[in-house]
Specification:
By secondary structure, the protein is mainly beta. The chain is 4% helix and 49% strand. This is Lipoprotein.
Length: 456
């Protein structure tokens, strides 16, 4: 859009804002209702959106809109080419069409003149990656789910292969790193290796720290957070060893969590030798709702540093080793990615959520949880398949451009959940009164850069 047109649009907006209200008596009648906009579109697919004027039926004023001005900006806040259509024969509705070329948030600014109202809304464009992953169906349900390179599934507290349980740990939590499966229960930690046919026990470490709240796992190292302590377990090739435990739970402040409160008491993040522990809001001693406190590796165990904790507000809706996903309610609802660094927790990128819903559960003892964005709107037909709601999108942080990208993987998932490697949910048959067909699981493809190519 040219600067002149942008200025004329701003002038029209100012004029509309200054118009007097309809004289009384006036019967309010919303002829157009809320703008019937798609809040989700796909990168590279033309999107045609309808805009509806909002009018009042006043006895002394039968004026109708005579024009429509539209301005659209992209994720980089630069103007985006958009075509608008206004037909004086149907003055209460207009159309706009554009083709999004970047993932992220597009901000729409529209005005009917001289009446009809102003409209500001966000439209989210996602990269369609549904053809880059082959869905699998599992005959069981899982709140927590990971997979070894040899194909065993760590589902909640069981390790499954071909629908059969290899091992079950009623009080255990599981974490997968390559073909290594770590098991943690209130009394011991065990390390297994998936051989492709069985699980081989390679080490056991007894402890008295109780149930695990959060964990970070690699093939050779496991960091576990318990109700009061954090410990580091390593594998030296023959067995497990520990550098000792460190108390992390605050001794002052609001006190212990009430019994039965869901979710972990704390979460773990890591950048090199700097560990971050995010305190539950009820344990935070800050005036902010949350804190993330730094610990450093000293002689095999993590110790609290002299640096201050990083304070932040909002609800944690996802976590991974590199940072936190936080939902905040400011002037609008936004999703922010906070990166964990050697200097603490740093907010890196924010995405306005508009009408898109965020779904996230934070099970205790799960290695990673990523938020899932859902919408029940209908996409335009894709060239490869017909998309159907509910649609699920994955937010991905791009560290090069410091932006949140959106990826579309699948539709028709109920109670969708995601980790850094998988997305899964219940799938319903697409027939009236359809019945559950099992757990639908998709492996997440390599993360994209902001230019739509996989990150190296």
């Amino acid at each position: 859009m040219s600067p002149g047109r942008a200025l004329s649009l701003l002038g029209a907006l100012a004029l509309l804002a200054s118009l007097p209200a309809c004289p009384t008596p006036c019967v309010s009648g919303d002829l157009g209702g809320r703008a019937n906009l798609q809040e989700l579109v796909l990168v590279g697919v033309p999107a045609k959106l309808a805009l509806h004027a909002v009018l009042s039926e006043c006895e002394s004023d039968k004026t109708l809109p005579s024009s429509l001005a539209v301005e659209l900006s992209g994720p980089d806040n630069l103007p985006v080419e958009v075509q608008s259509t206004f037909n004086p024969a149907s003055p209460t509705v207009g159309f706009l069409q554009f083709t999004p070329m970047q993932t992220g948030r597009y901000h729409l600014f529209a005005a009917f003149d001289p009446v009809g109202g102003l409209l500001q809304t966000d439209i989210h464009a996602a990269q369609n990656r549904s053809t880059e992953t082959a869905p699998q169906t599992l005959p069981f349900g899982c709140d927590s789910l990971e997979r070894t390179l040899h194909g065993a599934w760590a589902c909640d507290s069981s390790v499954m292969r071909d629908g059969t349980a290899l091992l079950q740990f009623p009080e255990g939590r599981l974490a997968v790193a390559g073909n290594v499966v770590w098991m943690m229960d209130p009394r011991q930690i065990q390390r297994y290796v998936d051989t492709g046919t069985d699980l081989e026990l390679t080490g056991t470490w007894p402890h008295t720290e109780g149930a695990v709240e959060s964990l970070l796992a690699t093939a050779e190292e496991l960091v576990t957070l318990h109700a009061q302590t954090v410990q580091r377990i390593t594998f030296d090739g023959t067995g497990l060893t520990s550098g000792g435990t460190t108390r992390w739970a605050p001794t002052t402040g609001p006190g212990p969590l009430p019994p039965g409160l869901g979710g972990p008491k704390g979460l773990l993040m890591r950048a090199g030798d700097t560990l971050g522990i995010t305190l539950s809001p009820l344990l935070s001693s800050s005036s902010f709702s949350n804190e993330a406190c730094p610990y450093t590796l000293v002689k095999g165990r993590f110790e609290r540093t002299a640096s201050a904790c990083s304070a932040f507000n909002g609800n944690v809706v996802g976590f991974e080793p590199g940072g936190l996903w936080v939902e905040e309610f400011l002037s609008s609802r936004v999703l922010t990615f906070h990166e964990w660094t050697g200097a603490g927790l740093v907010p890196r990128a924010t995405l306005s959520l508009s009408e898109v819903q965020t779904t996230s559960l934070l099970p205790t003892g799960q290695p990673t949880v990523l938020p899932v964005l859902t919408s029940n709107q209908s996409f335009p037909a894709d060239t490869s398949r017909t998309l159907r709601p509910p649609h699920v999108l994955m937010p991905v942080y791009d560290p090069l451009q410091r932006r949140i990208l959106l990826e579309y993987l699948d539709s028709g998932l109920i109670d969708a959940r995601a980790s850094t490697t998988l997305m899964w949910g219940r799938s319903l048959t697409i027939t009236p009164g359809g019945t559950p067909t099992g757990l639908r699981v998709l492996s997440r493809p390599p993360a994209l850069s902001s230019h739509g190519v996989p990150n190296p």
